[in-house]
Amino acid sequence: MTNKIIVAIDGYSSCGKSTMAKALAQHAGYTYVDTGAMYRAIALYTLRHELAEPAAVIAALPQIEVGFVRINDEQHVTLNGEDVEGQIRTLQVGNRASEVSQIKEVRAFLVAQQQKMGEAKGIVMDGRDIGTVVFPNAELKLFLTASPEVRAERRYKELVDKGEHPDFETVLKDVNERDYRDTHRAESPLRQAPDAIVVDNSNMTKYEQMEVIYGYFDRFQ
Ligand code: DC
């Protein structure tokens, strides 16, 4: 048995982080953790309870439990025990997640849980601050990127596949706004760790990316 490592995958929204992280976790036989889903679960809670102000969100944290369950070999995020996977992938929840993720206390709350999940290593975690804050000592750090237009195109297709009727310009605007918020917030802004490997997948197929990423991982085996 080879030594297990921690793989941190960071990058902009809709750049295929989750797809790659999931595929790599399967390739490696590791646990996959989608930290964006954790921020989205908190966002859903604040929408349901109409908590607009940061102080109200912070006060509610002791009542919020975020977890994961495996259903049909898929990882679903839970909010106080309820499987909310089907409700967190909307533009509205995504935008709210980007807002609540700016609150220092929300980040500390989730980062502590994420660090616990990585204690035994053998984990692939994706998000915005995994290689910089959650696991600054991760053995392998990948930073995925793609042009805003390519990412908006992907997000647009995902939403159409889900039965939504998005407007492309709105989706693109949303991608740009979210990038701005994620990279300019005071708390743990999205940035590339100095020791992260950058993978720009604007012109790569999913399989080309998998080959590149598995190659980096396999160096540790
Ligand atoms: O990856 P995603 O689109 O599901 O993430 C939703 C939002 O959560 C995103 O706008 C930024 C935030 N997020 C974060 O701040 N830190 C993370 N580790 C993961 C997500």
Core attributes:
221 residues, Rossmann fold, three-stranded antiparallel sheet, 9 helices, alpha/beta
What does this structure look like?
The protein is α/β, with parallel strands linked by helices and 221 residues long. It is built from nine helices and eight strands. The chain has a single domain (6-218), classed as P-loop containing nucleotide triphosphate hydrolases (Rossmann fold). The strands form two sheets. It has a five-stranded parallel beta sheet. The chain binds 2'-deoxycytidine-5'-monophosphate. 2'-deoxycytidine-5'-monophosphate (DC) binds next to helix 2, helix 4 and helix 8.
Sequence stretches where pLDDT stays below 50 over 5 or more residues:
none
Average pLDDT, all residues: 95
The oligomeric status of these chains comes to: single chain
* Beta-strand content: 15-25%
CATH domain fold name: Rossmann fold
Number of helices: 9
Choose one word for the global shape: globular
